[in-house]
Amino acid sequence: MQNAISAFLREPPDDTPPEVLTALRLMAGNASEPLPPRLYFETVEQAPVAISITDPTASILYANAAFEHLSGYLRDELLGKNQSILSSNATPDSIYRQLWRTIQRKKTWTGTLVNQRKGGDEYLAELVISPVLDSSGEIAYFLGMHRDVTREHELATALRQQKTRIENVLDAAPTVMVLLDAEGEIILDNMEYKKLFGDLRGREPLPLIRAALRQQAGFDPIERTVPATGDGEDFKNVEVSLEVPGGLGPRWFSCSGTRISEQDGSARSYFGRGNRGDARLLLLATDVTARHREIERAHLEHLRARIAEQRLAQGMREALAAASYQIQTPLNLLRAASAMFANGAGTLEGFAPTLAQITETSEQALKTLQAALPDAIAEACVSVNVNELVRHVLALETDALLAAGVTVDWRPAHVLPEITARQTELRSLFKNLIDNALQATGEAGRSQRELHISTRALDDAVEVCIQDSGPGFPSGDRYKAFEPFYIGWRNRRGRAGMGLPLAQELANQHGGSIEIDPEYNDGCRILVTLTNALPRD
C-alpha cells in the first residue's frame, strides 16, 4: 500500500485535486522520523472502524479498508466522490442540516444516519464527524468515523417489542398485577390495577390490599415474601374483601404473592462475581366477587329459611310469653284473694277451697304454657365480620324496603376487626332494628323515606349506627322503648312489642349495648356496640 502511494505521488494524474496530493504526502511521511506519519497511516488503515477524510465540501480524500468493507465500494470508486454517495432518503433532511450547522461551527457532530451500501442495502450508521483545522484555524478537512449499528438497533427494537408484548399481556390479563420492591414501592402495575384505582375513587389499591391481608389473613405480604432478612415465603389464593365506594357490596380478591430475585446489574457481576440481586414481590389479586356472590346468594337463601324458622319460633315465644304475662295478673289476684279467705278475712266460708282450686289450676295452666315455649336454638360462637352480617340482613329486607319506598344509604367501614359472635343471633338483632326503622319511616308519613346504616371500628369494639327518618322517640320514651310489650306505633297490627327488648338482650349477651342517641332529633338514631365478650367455640 505504501509503495503504491509513493508511485502515485511520483507521477500523479493531471486532474488530481491538490487536497488529495497533500493528504497522500502526509500519509507517506519520512521513514527516518521516530514515529513517522506512515505509522499513523498504517494504524488508521488497519483500524476496525470505518474512517474517512473529506475536504470542506465533503469530497472523499481518503477511506480506510474498513470503510471499503462497510460501504461495499472500492477505494478507487470512493476517492473524489462526495460523501453523500452513501446517503439514503430514509434519513430526514433536518438531520443533515443539523449535521452541517454543527461541523461548520467547528464542532464535532455525533449522531446516527441511515446509509446505503453500493448494492443499495441500507444500514444504520453511528457517526462521529470532527473538523480538522489548519494553522490559521480554518477548516481544512473533516475526519469521519462510523460503524454499522444495525444489529444493535435490531436487538433494541426486539427488546422494546418484547417489552410491549409483555405490557400488553399484563394489561390484557383479568387479574390485578403489581410488582413491588422490598420497601413496598410500586415498580410496575397493569391496567386492572389502574381500573381498581378508579373504582376506589382515587385511593391507592395497594395499601388497602395490604391492610386487608393484615386484618383478614393475619400477615403483611411484604414482610412475608420479601423480608429484610431471609428468603421469605410465597403465598397463594388468600381471599380478602375490600369495600368499594358506591358498590353493591364488597369486592372479593384471591391474592397470591411470589418472590422474584433480580440479577445484580453492576460491572462486577459481568463475570458472575456480583452481589445478590434485589428481591421483588409480584402481587396478584384475582377478582372472585362473582363466585362469592353466587355462594352468598345460596347462603342467603339458606339464611332466609333459617331466619323464617327462627322468626316463627320467636313469634310463638313472643305470643306465649305475652299470654303468660297476661295470665300472671289475674293469677296474682286469685292468690291474694285465696290468702285472704284462708286467713279468715273473707266472709264466704266456702269460697276458700274454690279459690285454692282456681289458684292451683291457674298455676298449672301457667306452667303448661311456659313449658310450651320453644327452646332457643343453641349456636356456636365464631369469628364474624359485622359488615357481612348487616349486608346479609339488607339483602333479606330488600323486598320490604323497596315496597315501602325507603332509600338505603349503606356506608360500611373499609376494614373492620372481626368479633366473636353467634351469627344468627346477630342477624336477628340487626333485623329487629331494621324492621323497627322501617316501621318508623311509615309512621312519619313523609314522602322521603330514608334509612342510613354505617359501621366503624372502635378501640376494642365495632359500632353499628342505624338511623331512620321516622318521628323519633320522645325523650321520656327512650328507655321505655326497650321494655317488653311496649308498642309506640299507631299501627299495632302484628306487633308484640318485643323487637327492641330482644335486640337489647342479644346485644347484652354479646358484651355490647344499644342506645337511642339523645342528641339526634331528625328521626331516630340507634347505636349498637359489640365487643369480643364471647369465647370462640
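[next item in queue]
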Amino acid sequence: MAATNTNSQIDPNSGFCSETNIFHSLRPSITLPPPSQPLSVTQFAFSLLHSNITNISETPFLINTGNGHRVTFSEFLHQTKSLAFSLQEQYSLSKGDVAFILSHNSLQIPSLYFSLLSLGIIIATANPDGSISELTHQIQLSRYTIAFATSQTSHKLPPKLRTVMIDSPEFSSLLNSNISISIENRSSAIGVVINQSDVAAILFSSGTTGRNKGVLLTHRNFIAVMASHNATYPFRDHIQVVSMATRALFGVFGLTSLMRAVIMGETLLFLETFELEATLEAVDKYKVTCIPVSPSFIVALVKSDLTNYHLSSLRTLICGGAPLGHKVSDNFREKFTNIGIINGYGLTETTSAGAVKICPQLGSVGGLRLSAILEAKIIDPVTGETLSPGQRGELWLRGPTVMKGYVGDEKATAEALDSNGWLKTGDLCYFDFDGFLFILDRLKEMIKCNGYQVVPAELEHLLLSNSDIVDAAVVQYPDEDAGQIPMAFVVGPYKKIQRVAFIDFIPKSVTGKILRRKLVNYALFDTVTEL
C-alpha cells in the first residue's frame, strides 16, 4: 500500500509533497495482508465472500439472461473446488503452468479462473475475436501448457495445442464432480504454496499504439485491488446488488469487476448482446443495480428515448476505458437524477487501479481522486523534470497494483518501469491544487498543430456536446503548413473542425478506448466521405 501521509511537507489540499515531488492519495488508507504471507487470489477472494454474505446457498451469483441458467454462490464454490481437483488430477497441471484461455463470457469462466488461480496456474486470457496472427503472437508470448476454448473459438488455436472445450459435457462433469475437499485447504493439502509475488495472470494490453504486450500481474496485484474494492464498496445498505458482465472477462476491467462481484456477493448477469435496448430490457427485468459501461454507452443513453423501460432499480454506472467529458456527465445527470456515475481511470499495467471520481449530483466539480493504494508523479516528457500541481506532464504511478512487467520483453519492461517501481503510463495528465487528477490524452496521440499541443479528447468532448452527434474521434492528419491538423471522424450529422470524415462507427478496443491509429490509416490510405 502507499505510504501513510505523515510527512509535514505534504500539502493537505493537493496531497503533493514538496520534498519528494510525489502526489499522495487523499483517501483513507487501506490495510493489505503482509506481502510475505502465502496467499492466493482465490483464498483471499473467498475469505472476503464469506465475511460479506451469509446466505451463500441461496444467493444467485451468475445468471444467463438468454437461457435462464443460474448458478448460486454455493454452486460456484463447489464448481471451483471440483474443477481444481479434476484439473490437477486428470491433466497433471501444477503451479507455474500457463493456461491459455480463449472464450467469450460464459457461466463457466468464473469457476475456471478461480480454480486455476487456486492451484497457482497462470491464466493467459485473450480476445476470442482477435485475428489469427494476433493470437499466434500471444500464444508464443505466454508459453502455454494447456488451452481452454469453446466450439466457436478452438479453430483459432494451433492444432497440436492440448485444448479443453469448456462448452462440452466433459467439462461440465469436471465442474460438478462429487468431492468434499475444501478449496481453502486444498493448496496446503497437495503441497502447493502460493506466494503473493507469484504471477497470477498474463493479460494482453489493448495495443492502441502498437502490437499488444503480455502484462504480468501477480496474486498481490489482484489482492490489493480486491482489498480496495472491499474497503470502498458503495452498496452497504443490505440490498442484493445486481450487476452485468458488460465487459469482456479476458480484459482487466472485466476481470476485476468479476472479482468485485465475487467478494461482495453480487449477482452477475451475462447477456447475449450489449446493444442499448437489450441492456435496458435486462435492467428492467432483473432490477439491475449497477452496470460497468464505456463513455460511448453513456452518450447513447443520454440521447435515447427511454419511455419503454423502467429503470428505478439502477443506481450506478461504473464508467471506464476513456475519459468522460463534463458536458456528457452533466447531460446525464439532468436526465437521470437518481443514477450516479463512478468514473474510473486505470490500466492493465495497474490491474485497473488508478483514480476514481464519484458523481452523485449535477454539477459535481473536480477530477479523479488518486487511489488510496497508489502514489503518483507528473513528469515533463521532454526534460524529465518532476512537476507540481497545475502542470501538465506524463503520469507515473507506484503501488501494489503495478504490474511485474511484460512477458518476454525485457526492453519494454525497462522502458515502462524505472528502478524504483514507478510505472510510466504514457498519459498526459495534471493534478490541480485540490488534489484532483485530470486525464487529458495519450502522449503519443497528441496533435502538434502550428507548434501547439492539441489534445484530441478535448475536441471529442466538444463534438459530443452536440446532441446530433452520436460518436466522434479526432486524430492527427499531416498538413504542409501546420505540420499536423485535427481530423474528426463523426457518427452523425456534419460538424467541421478542419477536416471531417463520416463513418458508420468509431473503432474501439474491448476496453472502450478509441483505436486512433486505425483511423489515421483509414484517413491516409482508404476512401472516406469528407467535407
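[queue empty]
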